[in-house]
Amino acid sequence: MVTLAAMRTSTRYLVLAASVIGLGAAAVGALTGEDIPKPPRSEPAALSGGRAAMHGELERLESVVPAGRTDNDGLWRGYLEDFERQREEGHPELAVRTLHDAYGAALQSRHWQVMIAVGDAFMVVGRAPGNAAGARVDARQAYLTALIRARRAHSVEGALRSAEAFERLGERDAVDQCLHIAGLLAAGDETAQQRVREARQRLMR
Known about the structure:
Layout: H1 4-8, H2 11-21, H3 25-32, H4 49-62, H5 74-88, H6 92-108, H7 112-126, H8 132-152, H9 156-169, H10 172-185, H11 190-203
């Protein structure tokens, strides 16, 4: 079991604590030593229901998700490799602890791809009896972080990959919001816009 002392030293703990007490971007930057970039924003007008709730959740998380401090993917990849090995060797509890270490390392990376990979690993954990609910919560948090980082990076690919991830979770409103963001990011690029249209037809059937 991960100790509270260990959590208190992690970037993940700082981010989650900041979100709970309502600190903004400047405060989180002070806690983590990072500058959080400002992403392009979607227009909230005309949103309603689940889409409006999803938009609000993203805007709240935007101020607490760290920008990341490194382009070195070795640490989180190493944790994920350890996670896979521990699962194969029949040590599920150890594997889950290692996966949470991978999540913390992924928060220190700058890339959306990292969070997709960690979220997918949590989905694997969720297939085991008794693990579904907690693992889905962790996977969802990783996918939300991936979407935020994709939006910051102006990455249509990242927004579309996030949409696919939320489709696996069965969250249609989140898929719709990802596709909306992808459409905004694709403005002025006909090839990218066509990819978004095709993704919408495939994922929103």
